[in-house]
Queue: 2 jobs
Job 1
Amino acid sequence: MPGPATSIANVPLHDVLPRHYVAAEDDLRRLAHKLDTHHSAANRTAWHWYPEHADCPPVSSERNYLLLVDTTITLINTGDDWLELTLDIAWRPKLTVNAAVEVACWCPQNHNMHQVREAHWQVAGRHDLADAFTASTAMLTDVLNSGPFDPCAWRVWAGLPHAPAARQ
Ligand SMILES: [Zn+2]
């Protein structure tokens, strides 16, 4: 798992993307660069990549989330509580672009992390991939533009339990 890198410029997308999707590289770099350099995200992004997964869609149903490349934008992290934006391209088992807003979870049945907003785009071909990456980065940019930047606000919005007062 190479990484983390704070910029898409350091991610060797050519080695990471499946052969038939490599032509989308320039579009992906342009979109990811806009995300990396957003004033609310700058120096908060962490990219990882997995070249060993590029051309091996999983045949086993047990491995149904095989990452090719992912980034996490950490907006808040107090150790106990956090707010992160995530974006990845993965085999699920079809090639899929996934984006989410994640907060620390205080549900009675603790999930550790809870996705309060998520979206997935299954893609077939480089144009699909570029379109899905456009939609996913737009979803995250919307959050970077307007927040909220407080995990509690997201939990209220999602109807989730609050963090215990003593730990806030
Ligand atoms: Zn939860």
Job 2
Amino acid sequence: MKLTFWGGAKMVTGSSFLLENDAGKRILIDCGLHQGARYCEKHNFEPFPLDPASIEAVFVTHAHIDHIGRIPQLYRAGFRGKIYSTPPTKDFAETLLIDSEHILSVEARELGMPPIYELQDINETMKLWQKVSYHEKIETAGFEIEFYNAGHILGSASILVKGDGKKIVFSGDLGHPVTPLIRGREEIQEADYALIDSTYGSRIHEDQTKRKDLFEDVIKETIKSGGVLMIPAFALERTQELLYELNDLVENGRVPRVPVFVDSPLAIKLTAVYKKYSKDPIYFDEAAIESLRAGDAIFDFPDLHLTLTTEQSKQINGIAPPKIIMAGSGMSQGGRILHHEKRYLPDPKSAILFVSFQAIGSLGRRILDGSKKAKAGGSPKDFSVKIFGEEIPVKARVLAIGGYSSHADQPALLDWLRSMKLGLKKVFLVHGEEKEMGPLEDRIRDELAVEPVIPALRQEVIL
Ligand SMILES: [Zn+2]
């Protein structure tokens, strides 16, 4: 059996791994977009390492673009096999691929290149895509494949592949054993080789249990001061987690009722997928299932407004504070949140709450860093950021809550490996930057007595 690292090697994005069995049959696990400063990095414009027509099937761990974003390009380059994922992953993928088509074409134009695919390729790709449940075994070209819950986002999976008498597990992006909304990740008992997500290989996350109390405090304070609470949030998973927590806080009277807006067409479409699967206990955690059984629509509460159209979005301005606005993008790199930030960042009664990691260079990071600097200087003086070409003074409170990560931290990653450590021959560290991998590599060697490997891009390994 030969394994080749097409992406996700010494980098977080571009997840893609090729397996070729002794009979020469090939399958691909994920086919993600390489992302960085650009949504679609230059690397994506290079041809695939081998003829995509020779690949029998693609197995998809989950719907984030850095795991699915090149599948329509694979189709365009001749792939005609089947694509398999869990049902929510397929639904999310269709929405996210269509949503990303515009930015792909804009960026391709900037680079003077043709787009890597067009709408027609997405439509044809979706025709090849089959839905499979967790633990439904798929046999194809001498491989046997099984999806396990990865607890990262709704429908996310780790994929166990058996072939040539060997067992290889691809973690996908791994979440926590216990999560606030979706069902926690499963353990896998036996594997000879594991590829593990090392996005947060060096870190230990902030305590998850406190975050809801912190969220409650932030809401209460902003309502009390009569301001606007702005929450830049990623459309997939983070928005639904916040809605689920808000649902509980509002319906149990822990926070006063004020208008809450989800001002993101993408988040609204993706929330509809969560609602679609919310009847199925395999996807959600016990508390969420209990609420659902009791008849609570967990993403719906009084005074919640989903603003799909631009017209509806503009009407938010006319609603008097206090109010809560959740919108994309999660790092304030674009999207409707910018309009609200421009309007309310200069307001000292308002607040902006960050619930995700803010990458260097993003507007979100500039707001966070600016606020830290202003506070450290002991100066009450505010600072400013540029939005739509205008200098906007930041007088609103700047807040951040950790503990909302949907990636496992170092102890949780080691735990996942521990359940299969007896049979493990090698662990390949993927989806991470080298500075995150080093500390995880040491712990795997020292604590689990298993050989860790940090593969290079395009590296081939015989298993
Ligand atoms: Zn992911």
